[in-house]
Queue: 2 jobs
Job 1
Amino acid sequence: MQRFTLVFLTVLSFTGFYASVGQIRTGRPSHAEDRVIIQRHRIVLVRNADVAKLFPNRRTAVVTYPVITGLNNPAVLRRIRLALEFKNIFDYSLKEYRDDPWLTEFNYVVDYNRNYLLDITFTQSGMAAYPDEQHKHFLISLKDGQIVTAQDVFESKKLNSLAAMVDRELQREIKRIAHENRSPEEKEMVNGAYDSLKFELKELDEFSIGPKGITFLYDAGFPHVIKAFEPRGKYFFTYSELKSYIKRDGLLGQFIQ
């Protein structure tokens, strides 16, 4: 009985090994097809001598970006890679980052990568007259490789109503910030800065998804001198709260079934 068990386990081991080899040889993925494989690629940009001489503290910059693999459909994979091509993130190539002393670090965070949706946010930080940081967010369908828009996932007739709902949260945040800044100097600094801030229909395409809901993103674009008084610009709603706005036959319909 012990000998039979040993032989059986040995057969199973070889079967599993050759199955794994077969997957590698045939290209079949060992992961679910509703997500991608993301490998972090890190490089250190070394600036030329002329730039380094003028800016000795900025001789190098660290760049970390994703290498996307893992989909059987080559056309979809190609579209995703094109959307996330380095030059398409912040309109700068690696060479331009190397030749310019501004960049300190380039990085990314994967917010969501399953259920046929890839949600990823890139960040670049650097220094000119002041330290600065920018973000670029992408939500991509893993079914066709296209950027997901509000029109794709929300009911068209309710887009205006949805924008108004998000705007109410923005205005609440503005009131809270204004209430907190009580000194005359602070009030003078931000005088009129909030007057034109409104979450409108055109902002609806900027949203990030998670397992529990959706976060709508808003960039007020305040200058550095009053950046500390800028609204955070992230407004979260659960899928339950957004149920009447989400298309049941769209990519987000799976979250409200």
Note: The first strand starts at residue 37 and ends at 46.
Job 2
Amino acid sequence: MPKKVILLTGSSGDIGNSIAELYSKDDYKVICIDKVFKRSKHIKNSCYIECDLNKFVNVKDYKDKVIKEINSVIPNDIEKLILINNAAIQNLGPVDDLQLDDWNLSLSINAAAPFFLVQAFLKSLIENNGHVINISSIHAKLSKANFTFYAASKSALESITRSLATELSSRGVIFNAISPAAINTSMLQSSFSNSNKAIEDLKKFHPTKTIGSPTQLAQLVKAITDLDCKFLSGSVIDFSGGIINVLHDPDA
């Protein structure tokens, strides 16, 4: 039985699947948490917990049921527990159209759910060399039209990361966030209508002349947790191909 466990939300997407596969290869028990499972269930040492994170935040009985299900598959004698808050919703739209329900959904899934998952498993995180990685977004700092609620929710997630690190690092739990720019997922490709030229133009827009891959992001996540450095806590690590440093002024 694996002695190391990872709780992973948003496990069915490209990034989540890459993270799950990487930790599985290192003999972690991977507890995949998602609303819908789109991938074949082939990852070694894995189990799957169906969870609607919006209901998890807002319906106490539902949250208690999900927590009980997760606890039932965590072995009793583990040595390390990692929580990766990767699930997110991109609820986009112009200011004229956005509604309170859109706001509540964005904040519930992208910011509140990571907090309440930490709260639910805090005792085990403290007892088992806990490490929490929150997947944020470049939109927490740099954004564009129609991203108001998504950007606000990711800013909140980064603030939560810093606050939890401030409060809980002394109790042995490490908290960090990663802030990616463009990652070459199927969702990104579909937003460009599967246009290879648009993807190539996006690559050229970054100083590195490339965009990130789900595998590379997964490798960064695992490198941070493998380091297990308690002095690295409360950080937001950019994964942006250098684009976060670029000032876009009009031509002189």
Note: Strands lie at 4-9, 28-34, 46-50, 80-85, 131-135, 174-180, 235-239.
